[in-house]
Amino acid sequence: GAVVSQHPSWVICKSGTSVKIECRSLDFQATTMFWYRQFPKQSLMLMATSNEGSKATYEQGVEKDKFLINHASLTLSTLTVTSAHPEDSSFYICSASPYGYTFGSGTRLTVV
Amino acid sequence: QKEVEQDPGPLSVPEGAIVSLNCTYSNSAFQYFMWYRQYSRKGPELLMYTYSSGNKEDGRFTAQVDKSSKYISLFIRDSQPSDSATYLCAMTITSGTYKYIFGTGTRLKVLA
């Protein structure tokens, strides 16, 4: 049980375009989902906490207008990287509550 | 000072060795401690979850928590090449928020 599915697993996009990443809880309802970013050889850094039916809570230094989070249902949260730039290239990972310690497989974003 | 300190390694050991991975932390409010294994380009996989000081064993893995010293460890017995991965410690204050603070991860290589 407690499976979190993340899609796509990797994506390449042109600078200035937007990319959407999906995070789904497959066998449980997730009232809260978390979005992390991981740069090479660095740890996971929490970007935002996504609560179903309400606005996401962003960590200090994370631009909420750039990283749009939508948690419209109990099984789906999306992260949209708007107007992506090469410095946004990273590994993005979600995790879901109530099994908050279960992570998705991650999305590798490359902006060219 | 970082809240969680973890030696990034890399750590190379021969197959069958006992591996010791460690993290120290500064926030005495941390109550829940986790160890994750992360293979390259994958999401973290939960290995151990502990709350109280002392040892918790699961197969070849033993998690140790010393709250008085603010020090946690993960021991891997009879290490296998398949154990080669990055191991991340994580901790949180309460079980309800699941807002985890991660260590930077230790890269482990088990040599056949």
Structural category of chain A: mainly beta
Class by helix and strand content of chain B? mainly beta
- Shape type of chain A: globular
Quaternary organization: heterodimer
Short précis:
With 112 residues, chain A is mainly β.
Descriptive keywords:
heterodimer; A: 112 residues; mainly beta; 7-stranded mixed β-sheet; B: 112 residues; 6-stranded mixed β-sheet
3D structure, described in words:
The complex is a heterodimer of chains A (112) and B (112). Chain A is mainly beta and 112 residues long. Chain A has no helices and 11 strands. In chain A, strands 2, 4, 5, 6, 9, 10 and 11 form a 7-stranded mixed beta sheet that branches. In chain B, a hairpin with a 2-residue loop joins strand 6 and strand 7. Chain B is built from no helices and 11 strands. The chains are: A mainly beta (112), B mainly beta (112). The interface between A and B is medium-sized, with 23 and 20 residues.
List the helices and strands and how they pair.
The complex is a heterodimer of chains A (112) and B (112).
Chain A: E1 4-7, E2 10-13, E3 19-25, E4 32-38, E5 44-51, E6 57-58, E7 67-73, E8 76-81, E9 90-97, E10 102-103, E11 107-111
Chain B: E1 4-6, E2 11-14, E3 19-25, E4 32-38, E5 45-50, E6 54-58, E7 61-66, E8 71-76, E9 85-92, E10 101-102, E11 106-111
Parallel strand pairs in B: 2-11
Antiparallel strand pairs in B: 1-3, 3-8, 4-5, 4-9, 6-7, 7-8, 9-10, 9-11
